[in-house]
Amino acid sequence: MCWAVPAKVVSIDSDVVATVDLGGGSIKKVAIGVNDLKVGDYVLVHAGVIIEKLTKEGVLENIKFISDQIREVATIIGEDPEKAVKDYLEVVSGILEEINGDENGQNNFSSR
Amino acid sequence: MELPKEIEIFFRENAPLAKKLSEETAKLSPKVKEKTGLDVIKIMNFCGSHEWTTTHYGIRALLTEDVELIPGPGCPVCVTPSSDIENVIKLAMDGYRIYTFGDAYKLPTVNHYKTGQIGSLEEAKGNGADVRIVYSFADAIEDAKKDGKPSVFFGIGFETTVPSYAVLFAKGKIPKNLLFYSSMKLTAPAAVYAVKVHKESKRTPVAGVIGPGHVSTIIGAKSWDFFPKEFNIPAVVSGFEPIDIMIAVLIILKNLYTGNIGLTDVEYKRVVKREGNVYAQDLVNDVFRVVDTIWRGIGNIPESGLDLKDEFKEYNAREELGIKEKPWDYDLPPGCKCNEVTLGTAYPTDCPLFMKACTPSRPWGPCMVSSEGACSVWARFGSHKRILEIIKEGGS
Q1: Would you call B11 helix, strand, or coil by DSSP?
Q2: A91-104, pLDDT tens digit by residue?
Q3: Of A1, B37, B109, B372, whose Cβ has the fewest other Cβ atoms within 10 Å?
């Protein structure tokens, strides 16, 4: 009952209703449950209502947060924290390049 | 590449990272046990979708036996009381058209197995009632407008679903012929109830909690701060992919080890904000009020439900149709352990009916009905405990 699916906003039809593309050719009218919705926004849809927007900034913040956790845990279990983060960054380099659109992404995550 | 696809690949199909997290968890968990004196580190989730991810992707198999992931109250369909189902069935048989989500369509009443009983909305439809499954409240509104027939929407759900109702009430989009029967539930009061059951019994206490990702999208991660503050239990709001769950476990272990149990951590940062979706919260507060409500097999939990405010009482099915609330009586079918499964005091495999008298195609109890009920999840995707059960049944 709490599953939500990602979608892209195709049009904003009124103050209450937007049309979204759920992928796979599925277009649906849904209620708007967020502020400042724009055409082209990625959103999460649950039971016919948009419950939140999905942003690149949020994804990057998510990935950086994981990096911080890996560093802290490595310290506790007696491993080299910088090596642990470096290994992690190698795993995430693909998505960072996709999101950032350049090769500077890794540098953004190297700082504490 | 589209952003959702990038996220899916990273958080779902990331075997190297999953392996790394599994190894780190295995190294950290013995240290946590030694430091805390716990015999097992019990971590409870409050969302059927988290249990789905945990089971579907075999997360338990990636953890050592030091860590136990248990499902808590995370399925609103499972805890919808039998009296609500009976009331809505009666309305259906009295001629009202009923709109419901698919999850609630097969939900059985306490006496569903008795001869002469109409034990679910599905059976009501089989007996000629007008029962329609909808994808959303908005779809029910559009359908109800077409012919003006007196209709009732069976409004179940946790905080994630509530805005889908609130926005349409708040914006005045409900036709006069559509009433609303509320069976909405609030997650946090039941989460506290479940954790207290473990704490106040001889069971291993809950050492950490994984906060529900999409409920928290609405109510905010701050809503779980009472766990670290009042219970000294780390809380992490997690996303729904396997990597999300594994990170949440790792954070809980880390916080238990360091003793740095502060505010709720948010792993699901790509969606959840600490304050939540304030726009949706305002709509919900405009339309609904907090009420005491019954949780199936458990009884009344104070201030754990929502119903329409007086301004909207002309749409309230209970008030408009004079439905009297009966005192709660135990409302699970004989033998069903859904209440224990909901509170995390029993696994689905502990129920003698599981995959025998109770299966997804013929559910005996409510936890086998919804796609996010723990019994249904375990039945469809198995678990390490289920595998052991099958081996035992096979005599190997």
Answers
A1: helix
A2: 888 788 878 764 44
A3: B37
A10 close contact with B: CB closer than 8 A: no
B77 at interface of A, judged by CB pairs closer than 8 A: yes
Which regions of chain B are under pLDDT 70? 1, 383-392, 395-396
User: Tokens for B351?
Assistant: 């129920």
Specify whether the CB–CB gap between B16 and B249 falls below 8 A: no
Q: Residue B142: which residues within 8 A CB-CB, separation 6 or more?
A: none
Q: What is the ipTM of this complex?
A: 0.92
The sheet with strand B41-45 has its strands ordered as B67-71, B41-45, B206-211, B235-237, B265-266
Residue B282 token pair: 């305002």
Residue B239: what are its φ and ψ, rounded to 5°? -80, -170
For residue A109, pLDDT over 60 is answered with: no
Q: Is B359 left (phi over 0), alpha (psi -120 to 50) or beta?
A: beta
Task: Encode pLDDT of B166-201 as tens digits.
Answer: 999 999 999 999 999 999 999 999 999 999 999 998
- Which residues does chain A have within 8 Å of residue B77's beta carbon, measured at their own beta carbons? 1
Beta bridge partners of A42: A8, A54
**What mean pLDDT is predicted for residues A30-38?**
96
| Block residue for tokens 């990038």 | B6
Give the closest-approach CA distance of A109 to chain B in angstroms.
15
Q: How far is CA B331 from CA B17, B80, B111, B294, in A?
A: 45, 10, 8, 10
User: Which amino acid belongs to residue B275?
Assistant: E
**Residue A68: other Cβ atoms inside 10 A:** 12
End-to-end alpha carbon distance in chain A: 38
A28: enclosing H helix or E strand: strand A27-32
Residue B250: phi, psi to the nearest 5? -60, -40
Residues of B in contact with A70 (CB under 8 A): 20, 24
Please give the Cα distance from A89 to A68 (Å, whole number): 11
Name the CA radius of gyration of chain A, rounded: 18
Q: How far is CA B333 from the centre of its chain?
A: 20
* Angle, vertex CA B97, rays to CA B293 and CA A32, nearest 5: 65
- What are the DSSP E strand ranges found in chain B? 41-45, 67-71, 97-100, 131-133, 151-157, 178-185, 206-211, 235-237, 265-266, 288-295, 299-308
Integer Cα distance of A10 and A86 in angstroms: 39
